[in-house]
Amino acid sequence: MYGNRYIQVLLPLRLKWEPFYSYDAELTPSQLAVGDRVRVEFSGKEYVAVVTVEEASQEAARIGLEKIKPILESLPSLAKISREEMALWRQVAEYYLCTAGEVYKAAYPAGKIEEEEVKARVAKRMEARLERLEDKIARARREDTRARYVAQREEILRSAQNDKVGEGAYEREIPHTGSGGAAIELSDAQEEAYSKIKEVFKTGKPALLRGVTGSGKTEIYLKLAAETLARGKNVLYLVPEIALSRQLEDRIKAIFPDELRVVHSAETLSSRTGTAEFMRDAPYLILGTRSSVFLPHRNLGLIIVDEENDQSYKQDNPAPRYNARETAIMLAGIFKAGIVLGSATPSLESLYNCQAGRFGLIELKERYFQAADSDVEIIDTIAERKKNGMVGDFSRKLIDRINNCLASSGQVAILRERRSYSPALQCEECGTIPKCDRCDAALSLHLREDGSSKLVCHYCGRVREYTGKCPACGGPMKPLGAGTQKIEEEAMRLFPGARIARLDSDSARSRKLETETIKKFADGEIDILVGTRIVAKGFDFSGLSLVAVLQSDSLLGQQDYRADERALHLLEQFRGRCGRRSEKGLLVIQTSQPEHPVYKTLTGDFDGNISTTRFLSERKLFGYPPYSRVINVVFRDRNLPRVELMSRKLADVLKASDSDGLRTIGPYSPAVDKVGGENLRIIRVLLSKDSRLKARKNGLAEAVEAFGKERGYTSHISLDVDPV
Question: b/e per residue, 500-517, with b = 16+ CB within 10 A?
């Protein structure tokens, strides 16, 4: 008699403790170990939990063995959670002030676990069917009967093998050039950067590759990947946007056709489950967006974080509110893997880490094709309007530049940082601006393909039909400003002979349309591409010679200490998209603030010493990152008076503990202070980055939790570490 054994498990819940369960060792096929998954009942619901302590008898005895429930069943058919996965979950939970259970839930959502169980049941049924066929084959007396059973068996095995091959789960050897045999050739400058990155890896530090747009960072990444795979280790390649992964996919597949798997939020759960199975059985290169850090990685040798400064790497809600860049650094540490962060415009935090000796800095200052930096032209839209120099949202100067570009067979990209036809509407008679019923945000006007119109909330997604009349007085409505749809419409009217397309998050919802648009523009089949900041990201369009930004002031007027830095990064990225071969490109910026410091900084100085020094000086003066750590205490409540009262009371509690290393600001309302019917308030806490940082973070979390429990308000408060 073995009797009961006692374990501790991790549940996909916001629990700060790990409950105990028992199991009968005689009824369980094998002793449960750390990482095994079991089904348990907790508070009246069933969950798939992960064993974290395999022998917990002494700890369980302290709370009373009679109180401990048995597991419902062990789940040996589900893949074991590795120690590396659990180590990452705990590090993420500690850094982002959430629980390991919340991270587990993000890595293994209920739908993914259900998909795993379905596949396991199918495999079990197939195994049982094969056993029955083997028995029938052995007992068959007639040859034709035996042949029929053998054929059925072969069909099942062939079907299973096809499924496995479809998921990429097979072994292979990887030559240094990549399994596709395509050689990765580097220029002298790229080769030098590659060697320096390898030297940084030897120190165990992250390498920051700062390379001008068009300098060939991707080729360096791919050579690092080929070398890593040749050593028998695996690669994770992170990009911030789905659109980027789609263009890179073809490029990488040419070199690593068997190792490549693409992972992003638009994938089905079945596809993600197939990817996880593939990763367990074969060498891999995962090309993915931020959630790829939580895949079941094994034998990881290299992590690439492209466009490391991009704010899309940060998840705002729900917990864990992590940044994939920082999480990737944690993951690299767990596997002792090399990690390279790349960008033409690195974040101030990463540049500061280089200055502090935490990262190694490698620079690529020349473009691969030796092209010069694009020129910059600032057009004052206020001055142009005074002299009748505007045609709709286009200045006559820009119209001339575009016509000249098209006449010389060049391509044009136009950036407007607002999707829709118009970002807002206003009644011409009473001045009403229609807003979402659930969010304190103006409704945007969108045109449908059939010519009808709708009003859309860009925060909660609610749609309302557009009648053209004011909901308050019935008066006529007029558009305020122009979104990408309207800019596209104006461009079609101004340049009737040009082939024009649009690329924004509306069009990107269709993978087929988005991929087709990007490919056509890359192949020169589109003359003018209108889009949001997607068009400014890391695409390589060889024919692009003119890029223009309309209503550029929308990039600057934000309530954020990072606004100028982000605007400069976006403009520099967009500038780098054109003139990427031997010809010089042109960036045209239409603005009503031509003297703004951000525009003055666009001088072509790659080192960016002036802007970096200015930004860092301002951050240091006001105590913002990278000289401190910011944590937002976020309140969400449908009851407006209550959220205002509670946020003020907690702010008073926190301010009473302010010191030299801790400063509390607020509460304040964000720019959009109501989303999805919930009123928002924020308390911002700045903590000095010194030896007491961790203690202050934990102290803040404890104070917020105690406040929430005392007032029964815990579910309305969340902590956002390093908000963007």
Answer: bbbbbbbbbeeeeebbeb
